[in-house]
Design brief:
Pfam families: ABC_tran, OB_MalK. The protein has 416 residues and is α+β, with helices and mostly antiparallel strands. Helix content is 25%, strand content 31%. The protein folds into two domains: 220 residues, P-loop containing nucleotide triphosphate hydrolases (Rossmann fold, 3-Layer(aba) Sandwich), CATH 3.40.50.300; 149 residues, no CATH class. The chain has a seven-stranded mixed sheet, sandwiched between helices. The longest helix has 18 residues.
């Protein structure tokens, strides 16, 4: 049993909570990725598990045992950092066995563990080289190897791929995921990169401002985001956020966006109880828009296209939505965040993140940014107006005040 549990873990510096009542269970053998923007508390959470930081309140359990006050060395966990921290004067073999030597493991056992780990990691041919004669990806694997030979109860990994170039990152992330699955060692992995989280994890936990937003499978997070923040953080490009209002219309629930009123189909409206004029944020995934009207009810959005990116596999059209301006603090926060991450939005360099005025970043007051992902065959040019359709059943609806989803699915566990 090597589960890891955060039980109501809080850490405050002065009075500011860096982690706020974090409760999370990482199952035995599970690969859980903790993801969130810079400063959300991910590293802090990892360091608390490792024993490098003590929580202000709450407990950490490893394999069911309370280790909150146990010294790091006695927790039987192995950490892999973003800086590989290899000893430059030692060969790969020495680097890998060093920890075992210190722990008093005998020579034969050390040799056999290093040989097995090197085999798993494809390092056998490199055992006699020194770190300077290795590529970034190979060094990263040596750092993994050092963790592996210890046969720990769990791996703790803090952005282990951040020093690698984009191509290598894709390869090594697949490698880490494969190795973790073949070993079945419980792994808590921290990254700010949602693509890394979505491709590697069994489950993803999303952290924002020290608070857990949602924990679920990649599919849960993408298709059933618990709140506006998760919708805007997960997915590439991230979801567009459109202001709207729920109204009652002839005993049905309708969504009003700008001056259009879309009567929601019964299955889409299930569970919605609009008091007159509930303000909502409508989440629209860039890949859910169509340029031809779909057969069923659909939301129509007009976008003034300012930039077209032809990526080969798809074409991204970025522009400003003609319909309405964004309101609501949750939408502002999510927009600011999504816009702050180049990788998420593909935004032009130098463009600032969203400000506090409720404007979409880079947009004029009263307009909002919108990104559509279209088939590469679509005829679209910058400086044109694009009419887009979104089928009613592809819309995500969030409370404009709290940011929480209005259609909670049982699997979408929202902590916020
Ligand atoms: N010793 C400290 N004193 C005060 N504040 C701190 C201290 N250490 C970290 N913080 C703050 O705690 C917050 C969370 O930091 P943490 O390193 O856990 O974030 P993170 O999500 O891992 O971010 P990143 O992706 O940038 O590493 C940050 O706002 C940081 O400034």
């Amino acid at each position: 049993m090597s589960t890891i549990e955060f039980c109501d873990v809080t850490l405050t510096y002065d009075v500011r909570p860096i982690l706020d009542n974090l409760s999370l269970v990482i199952g035995d053998g599970e690969f859980l990725v903790l993801v969130g923007p810079s400063g959300s508390g991910k590293t802090t959470a990892l360091r608390i598990v490792a024993g490098l930081l003590a929580p202000t309140a709450g407990q950490v359990l490893v394999g069911g045992r309370d280790v909150t006050r146990v010294a790091p060395a006695d927790r039987d966990l192995a950490m892999v950092f973003q800086s590989y921290a290899l000893y430059p004067h030692m060969t790969v073999r020495r680097n890998m066995e060093f920890g075992l030597k210190l722990a008093g493991v005998d020579r034969r056992e050390r040799d056999s563990r290093v040989a097995a780990a090197a085999e798993t990691l494809g390092l056998t041919e490199l055992l006699d080289r020194r770190p300077r004669a290795l590529s970034g990806g190979q060094r990263q694997r040596v750092a993994m190897g050092r963790a592996l030979v210890r046969q720990p109860r769990a791996f703790l990994m803090d952005e282990p791929l951040s020093n690698l170039d984009a191509k290598l990152r894709v390869r090594v992330r697949a490698e880490i995921a494969r190795i973790q699955r073949s070993l079945g060692t419980t792994t808590l992995y921290v990254t700010h990169d949602q693509t890394e989280a979505m491709t590697m994890a069994d489950r993803v936990a999303v952290l924002h401002d020290g608070r857990l937003q949602q924990v679920g499978t990649p599919d849960d997070l993408f298709n059933r985001p618990a709140n506006v923040f998760v919708a805007a953080f997960i997915g590439s490009p991230p979801a567009n956020l459109v202001p709207g209002r729920l109204v009652s219309e002839d005993h049905a629930v309708a969504l009003r966006v700008g001056d259009q009123t879309l009567v929601l189909p019964v299955d889409v409206a299930a569970g919605l109880t609009p008091s007159a004029g509930t303000e909502v944020i409508v989440g629209v995934r860039p890949h859910d828009v169509q340029i031809e009207p779909p057969p069923g009810p659909a939301l129509i959005l007009d976008v003034d296209v300012g930039l077209v990116e032809r990526l080969g596999t798809e074409t991204l059209a970025h522009g400003e939505m003609v319909t309405g301006a964004l309101t609501g603090s949750a939408a502002r926060a999510a927009i600011a965040l999504a816009a702050g991450d180049d990788e998420l939005t593909g935004r032009e360099p130098g463009q600032e993140a969203g400000d506090e005025s409720g404007r979409a970043p880079g947009g004029r007051p009263g307009t909002s940014r919108f990104t559509a992902a279209l088939s590469p065959r679509t005829d679209v040019t910058a400086a044109g107006r694009l009419r887009l359709y979104v089928a009613a059943d592809r819309l995500h609806l969030f409370d404009a005040d709290t940011g929480a989803t209005l259609r909670p699915a049982p699997a979408a566990l929202a902590a916020a």
